[in-house]
């Protein structure tokens, strides 16, 4: 290409690309903005607008927690601390505490992958602001609570059946090594 | 009043000086400050919508008082002058920049009679006082005693001095056609209809218009030519060390300059305040002229915002190449072509003017077809309302 031809082509490209770009930005004036006014009320709860598989603050359903300590062991930054004690007379083991330090948690999801019952999982809660760092340590066992023991042949108590099913659904859907990506396809 | 009133015995020059200062303050606080402020708010809103955001909408209805909140915040902030900065030039620089911008309002013709001073060298005066901005920016860059500021100031000076040339040559095409440098004279040489505007006088003035607008954007340090304050390289360029009120003055001048660019473009190429002969009432006519001029000028302010939302920032070498390799030769060609058209008979010239106007209308229609295509391709939710 000659010098003159490339010079004219440069001018033509500048004009046409600016023209095209300006038509794109102008078309955006007629679109609804993607962002929402966050603290304001919106028609549906804000938690429902979050994407599928959102990793919010961890939550624990202590009723179906077996106390296997897999999550505590697997946590890369040890933000989970579990204390288990045993009643000498009834031989019943119980939690003395089950704390998750939300300040430390990096939302990697490894604890929920290793949980055998799906008791520990990511909620859609994300508003973690607190005036006091101690308020960000979540205590899931405020008083002593007994460990869950899975029954052979499935759960029979109606209150626990739903909880076990929720945990199982969570494990099937998200708590896989690929984070549920294969399931989605 | 000067003979036996409140000013009796006071020298005439002092009274005139005070009157000028008072008039300047009134113009500043009644017209320029709200204009620059609202422009800053509108720019943020337009920009936000073009990026699928909402933009400031909390202070006042739709956030229209955002500029007041920003201004009050900036004025109440601590005025910091770095210990290593030049103690005299550093505080002075923002006012020089601001003066360069405010002095241009002297010759802007808002209506047939609504002009501070119709200087017979109007457009030359305007080019001269807007060059004062370079002095202020270079002063700010040097006196900050900071490498980023100095680099920003140097870049800005190089940029503004370079782009004066295509801007000046494009202005010269209009000056040749009008035969005068006076702003009112240039407007009176045009008519109210687009076919009488200098923009559609011939194909060369049409190109000169775009060259002038681009060069004016570069002189106003607007994106895509805002390399003096390129955040990724220079923090904030020459305003790095400024805070509070002095910082505010730089941006006051920048947003005010947008309107100056728009009004100069309107005056030179788009017929200024010319309105169709619909009324003989002088007051109504003045209002109509002012509104016409304001809307035309503000349309170009909107286009500048729109370009800012569209184009990425250019590199320094690209900026200089654009100016010296492309815009300077093209503006010379436009100038020579316009001179050629001045030898042509009026009927022959009108044919070319009509062709230019037809081309412009076809471009606008094609543009909206492209907008429709882009909109359909994205399949978004239609939301035309400006408020949200």
Number of beta strands of chain B: 0
Radius of gyration of chain A: 26 Å
Name the helicity range of chain A.
25-40%
The SSE order of chain A reads HEHEEHEEEHH
- The percentage of residues in β strands of chain B lies in under 5%
**Uncertain spans of chain A:** none
Write down the CATH topology of chain A: Alpha-Beta Plaits
| Oligomeric state as shown | heterodimer
Rg estimate of chain B, integer Å: 22 Å
Average pLDDT number of chain A: 83
Q: Which consecutive residue ranges of chain B, at least 5 long each, have pLDDT under 50?
A: none
The largest pleated sheet of chain A is described as: 4 strands, antiparallel
Helical segment count of chain A: 5
Number of strands of chain A: 6
Mean pLDDT of chain B: 84
Q: Structural class from helices and strands of chain B?
A: mainly alpha
Note the run of SSEs of chain B as H and E: HHHHHHHHHHHHH
Sketch the major β-sheet of chain B.
none
Q: Helix amount of chain B, in percent?
A: 55-70%
Specify the CATH architecture of chain A: 2-Layer Sandwich
Outline of the structure:
The complex is a heterodimer of chains A (185) and B (388). With 185 residues, chain A is α+β, with helices and mostly antiparallel strands. In chain A, 30% of the residues lie in helices and 15% in strands.
Report what the structure shows:
The complex is a heterodimer of chains A (185) and B (388). Chain A is 30% helix and 15% strand. By secondary structure, chain A is an alpha+beta fold. Chain A has a single domain, classed as Alpha-Beta Plaits (2-Layer Sandwich). The longest helix of chain A has 26 residues, at 3-28. Chain A is elongated, with a radius of gyration of 26 Å. Chain A starts with a helix and ends with a helix. Chain B is mostly helical and 388 residues long. Chain B has two domains: 1-73, no CATH class; 77-343, no CATH class. Chain B is 67% helix and 0% strand. In chain B, α1 (12-50) packs across α2. Chain B is globular, with a radius of gyration of 22 Å. The relative contact order of chain B is 0.12.
């Amino acid at each position: 290409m000659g010098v003159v031809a490339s010079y004219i082509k440069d001018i033509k490209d500048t004009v046409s690309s600016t023209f095209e770009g300006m038509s794109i930005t102008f078309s955006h004036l007629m679109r609804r903005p993607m962002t929402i006014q966050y603290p304001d009320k919106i028609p549906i709860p804000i938690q429902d607008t979050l994407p599928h598989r959102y990793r919010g603050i961890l939550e624990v359903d202590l009723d179906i927690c077996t106390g296997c300590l897999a999550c505590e062991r697997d946590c890369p930054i040890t933000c989970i601390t579990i204390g288990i004690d045993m009643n000498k007379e009834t031989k019943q083991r119980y939690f003395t505490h089950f704390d998750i330090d939300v300040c430390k948690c990096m939302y990697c999801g490894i604890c929920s992958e290793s949980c055998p019952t799906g008791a520990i999982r990511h909620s859609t809660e994300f508003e973690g602001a607190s005036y006091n760092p101690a308020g960000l340590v979540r205590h899931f066992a405020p008083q002593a609570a007994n460990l869950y023991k899975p029954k052979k042949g499935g759960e029979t108590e109606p209150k626990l059946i739903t909880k076990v099913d929720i945990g199982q659904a969570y494990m099937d859907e998200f708590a896989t090594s690929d984070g549920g990506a294969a399931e989605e396809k | 009043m000067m003979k036996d009133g409140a000013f009796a015995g006071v020298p005439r020059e002092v009274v005139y000086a005070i009157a000028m200062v008072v008039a300047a303050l009134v113009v500043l606080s009644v017209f320029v400050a709200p204009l620059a402020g609202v422009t800053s708010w509108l720019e943020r809103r337009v920009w936000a919508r073009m990026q699928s955001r909402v933009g400031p909408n909390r202070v006042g209805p739709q956030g229209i008082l955002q500029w007041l909140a920003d201004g009050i915040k900036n004025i109440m902030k601590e005025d910091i002058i770095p210990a290593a900065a030049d103690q005299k030039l550093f505080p002075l620089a923002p006012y020089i920049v601001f003066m360069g911008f405010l002095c241009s309002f002297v010759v802007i013709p808002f209506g047939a009679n609504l002009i501070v001073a119709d200087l017979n060298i109007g457009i030359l005066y305007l080019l001269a006082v807007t060059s004062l901005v370079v002095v202020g920016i270079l002063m700010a860059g040097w006196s900050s005693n900071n490498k980023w500021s100095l680099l920003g100031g140097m870049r800005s000076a190089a940029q503004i001095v370079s782009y004066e040339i295509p801007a000046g040559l494009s202005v010269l095409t209009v000056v040749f056609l009008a035969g005068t440098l006076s702003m009112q004279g240039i407007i009176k040489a045009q008519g109210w209809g687009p076919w009488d505007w200098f923009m559609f006088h011939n194909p060369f003035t049409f190109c000169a218009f775009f060259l002038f607008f681009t060069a004016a954007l570069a002189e106003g340090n607007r994106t895509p030519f805002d390399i003096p304050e390129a955040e990724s390289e220079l923090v904030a360029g020459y305003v790095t060390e400024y805070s509070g009120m002095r910082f505010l003055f730089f941006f006051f001048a920048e947003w005010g300059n947008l309107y100056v660019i728009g009004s100069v473009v309107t005056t030179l190429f788009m017929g200024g305040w010319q309105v169709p002969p619909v009324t003989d009432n002088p007051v109504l006519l003045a209002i109509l002229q002012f509104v016409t001029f304001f809307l035309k000028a503000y349309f170009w302010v909107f286009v500048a915002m729109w370009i800012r939302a569209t184009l990425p920032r250019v590199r320094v070498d690209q900026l200089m190449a654009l100016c010296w390799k492309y815009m300077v030769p093209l503006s010379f060609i436009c100038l020579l072509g316009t001179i050629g058209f001045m030898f042509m008979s009026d009927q022959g010239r009108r044919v070319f003017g009509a062709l230019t106007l037809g081309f412009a209308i076809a471009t606008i229609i094609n543009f909206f077809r492209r907008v429709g295509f882009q909109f359909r391709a994205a399949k978004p939710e239609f939301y035309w309302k400006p408020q949200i």
